Amino acid sequence: MIGILMQPNIVRQVRNTETGVVTITEPTEVRQVLSSRTAELLMEMSEYTVTDGTGGHARVTGFSVGGKSGTSEPPVGREYQGVIASFVGMAPIVDSEVVVLVLLHNPRGELRHGGQIAAPVVSQILTEVLPYLGVPSAGGTSPNHDDTSGTNAPVILPDVRNRTITEARNLLSNFTIHISGHEDESTTLITDQLPLPGVYLFRRSDIFLFTANNDARITVAVPDVRRMSLPQATNSLSSRNLNIVSTGSGVVTHQNIAPGTLVPQGTVITVTLQPQVLEAH
Q1: 158-192 burial, b for 16+ CB within 10 Å, e for fewer?
Q2: Same-domain pairing of 175 and 264
Q3: pLDDT more than 90, % of the chain
Q4: Are residues 226 and 260 in the same domain?
Q5: Same structural domain for residues 175 and 248?
Q6: Could you report the per-residue pLDDT of 109-159, keeping only the tens digit for each?
Q7: pLDDT in the model for residue 132
Q8: What is the pLDDT of residue 146?
Q9: What SS3 class is residue 265?
């Protein structure tokens, strides 16, 4: 359901450092401000702005982006304030995760329209933020399977902290669960998880759960997956129980965690792929 006004929240969760209890701020719906159909049309138009309109500079490789440019003139008598060039962008178009607003006050130079100078800034921000948050690209591949039929679409990792092991298993039925020890699953609470909740992962990704009595983390060295194809990088990372999120296509040109870095098993490694350029002879 879209077109609903949500109550703004700044704090996502509060953790009691003494008891480990986590209080989560749940999303709160205020009211329906637009019909679902109207909201869908607005999203379609915002995407068209980026693909075929004045917001072309807001494009991000591997992601669907929508947006709207703006260029406001100062009121009469206040010309000294100059124009304000702006662009608001959101990504992905479906189930948007990130919204960015860039305002440039009184820009210098010949270019002053929002689509010309603010949209590129939005593109740069989204290019960095989306992989950092683990948002899968349109061309993303499962960490464990090369399923492109849509049956292995990425799903958001739920928060199972402060839930029993039994409850966690039910909530994480789409993933591969790792948990040490043999505790009473109906009463023992999960105190932490890796990866942390909120990231989009493909089904059967590796999720590590910890309890008060079993909190040991196993660290592994991040392999160098640069210059690898996506299947090669996936196999290399999954062999060490590391998860992968990818953007782009081709061969890996960048990984967000340097090779050789020691990280806990379950860590998400974000890789950027670009087409391989063959040298002419």
Answers
A1: bbbbbbbbeebbebbebbbeebeeebeeeebbbbb
A2: yes
A3: 34
A4: yes
A5: yes
A6: 777 788 888 988 998 899 888 888 877 765 433 333 333 333 345 677 889
A7: 81
A8: 38
A9: coil
- Express each pLDDT in 222-248 by its tens digit: 999 998 887 788 888 988 999 988 777
Q: Which of 275, 279, 273 is nearest to 226 (CA)?
A: 273
Give the Cβ contact number of residue 256 at 10 Å: 15
Question: Of how many residues is the chain composed?
Answer: 281
CB 19 within 8 A of CB 84: no
Q: Pull the structure tokens for residue 175.
A: 């993933």
Name the token pair of 216. 């040991």
Same domain, 100 and 205: no
| Within-domain flag for 27 | yes
Question: Is there a contact between 62 and 138 (Cβ–Cβ < 8 Å)?
Answer: yes
Task: Please state the domain count of the chain.
Answer: 2
CB-side exposure of 267: number of CA atoms within 13 Å? 22
Q: In sequence order, what are the residues at sequence separation of 6 or more whose Cβ sits closer than 8 angstroms to the Cβ of residue 155?
A: 174, 200, 201, 202, 203
Tell me, yes or no, whether 20 lies in a domain.
Answer: yes
Q: Phi and psi at residue 247, in whole multiples of 5°? A: -130, 145
